[in-house]
Amino acid sequence: MGVPTRINNREFVITFINSESAEDVAKAMNLTKQQVSMKAVYLRKLGVRLPKFMYRGKDRRLEIAQLNSLIEKHKKANK
Question: CA-to-CA distance for 13 and 46, rounded, in angstroms?
């Protein structure tokens, strides 16, 4: 195992709040997603009010609902 990476708290928070996902933070800071998650949990335990990223699955559910709606409209139009 290598030496643990020191992550600057200020740089992390600024990058975190300007990103849309943990993956974005990881890419921007050359970290793994696990390192980002662990750092976020650690800072939250200290009292830093980092927002949580939205789960992207909700976007898929919305898209699925819209697609199903299109199918229903198509069925009604072709009756």
Answer: 13
